[in-house]
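Hi support team,

I submitted a single chain yesterday and got back a structure, but I'm not sure I'm reading the token output correctly. Could someone confirm the output below corresponds to the sequence I sent? I've pasted both exactly as they appear in my results page.

Thanks,
R.
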Amino acid sequence: MDTTTDVVPVRQTAAERRSLPDFRDIAEAFADKEKVCRKPVPMRVENPRTFEVSYVGAPCKSTVASVCPACAEQARYLRMTQCREGWHLEDEPEDRKKDPTEHQQALLATRADLFNNYQQTKTDGDTEFISRSGIVEVVASIDAELRDTGLRKRLPPLDPPAKARRVRSTRRRQDVPNLPRRRVSKATIGRQFAGRFRPSMFVTLTLPSYGAVLSDGSPVDFATYDYTRAARDVVFFSNLVDRWIDNLRRVVGYNVQYWGTIEPQKRGAPHLHIALRGAITHKIIQQVTNATYFQAWWPRFDAEDRVYGNDEQMPVWDHKRATFVDPATRKPLNDFEDALDTLGEVDNWEPAHVARFGVQVDSKGILGGTEESSRHIGYMTKYLTKSIGEVLEAKTPRAADHYDRLHNELQYVPCSKKCAVWLRFGIIPEGASDKTVPGRCKGKAHRRSTLGLPGRRVLNSRQWSGKTLPDHKADRAEFVRQLLASVGIEKPDTSHLRVTPVQPGDQNALPRDHLIMAAIAQRKTWRAEYVRAMLAAGPPAAQETSAILTAA
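Hi R., thanks for writing in. Yes, this is the structure output for that exact sequence:
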């Protein structure tokens, strides 16, 4: 007897079919589950020994969880490692600066002779000899060779641009208290107490109040809220933090190292959570905060200084003169340096803006290796996987209106000397060209998604841990490599491979779906090897924290 029955498929509507996940949706969801990058970048791998070519997916390295949760979480853990390793150091970090090689010194000696000959010939006015001898081309080749040997910073040009030095008063403002000043030593480690305790500090700094706000961050009274000052303080917040660090080092007398994160408050103003190495009293931190300010010595950009307030009547680019001119008179505008020269002739020239911190300052001593230290590290890095727009997502219509007003005010605050907003005030910014849109700057300070907050969310000093982020990442990889090698799992050497981005039009490149599947399979293999090595290493009590002394 045949018991089989025909199964009639359920008819689906078009809307139901569109709601079904496709293959990439499933692959990305599974990649999130396996903690694999969901948006891998196709890379071309060439083996110069065997001439074999393969294609792999490199992590996208996004720091925003809504874009790629796996890469964002990995970046956050790396920042946590960086913060933890440098916060409570017992010894001075190792100076990894390399000494110049004999080859570099020989190249520099040759360049110095050519530079001397060039300057002497230029002084004699023999321009024809300069063009015939090819000194400029030879120096350019030497510079290229110097860069190939490993060189940081820029090389001095043969014809350095002449810069007029502006002299301004360095006297402190009379409306701020004076600070004691000590000679800053090279030490970066704080004091030790009772022969064994070396606490460090956790400090929170905020900007002043611009008006009373409600629980959603919106002001109680929109009319009296100081949006002008709020927008300017946001733009110059990073400069204010730099002044605070400099003042703190001068007061305590040693090279204080720091690691901090900048996060927005509900009202849209940034505040700083910063970890300081070494014990500093709250009295000193409060004193330094009260006495710290930043003065913007720029041309004034108040509302009454706007020359072109209407977007329809903005300066226009004159192609014959290669500069911006007034739309009515066709006269060229003053550039930024000319505007500063004009202001330099004014007696009692006042800064365009003075930024200061608010009165609320929180500081707390933290001991290393404690649960409290780990909790504060997690607190500082809590929002690193979210963008500024996600953190400042408006919960109410009033909050949305408040953010829109702040964003509108930021459209009239220049963010740098190259900002196109200067054209609203009749000033040509540095580096302006025919592609510059008057009054429209592409900087992050003017975007609605950032509300003036800086692009760098994490600030850390150079001698914090003695390592860069790639160094910390390499330490983690070395720890795993040594752990696998202890159980006989040897990874192949890949240092000789040439990895380059896939060029557009490469027909052999794999689609993203295949790259995700390959990454998931590889991750499973790695995880199985790591679990095998951990089981072979014994119980956690018998294991060392790290395979190398400086690793995380």
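A quick pointer for reading it: Residues 102-148 form one domain. Let us know if anything else looks off.

Best,
Support desk
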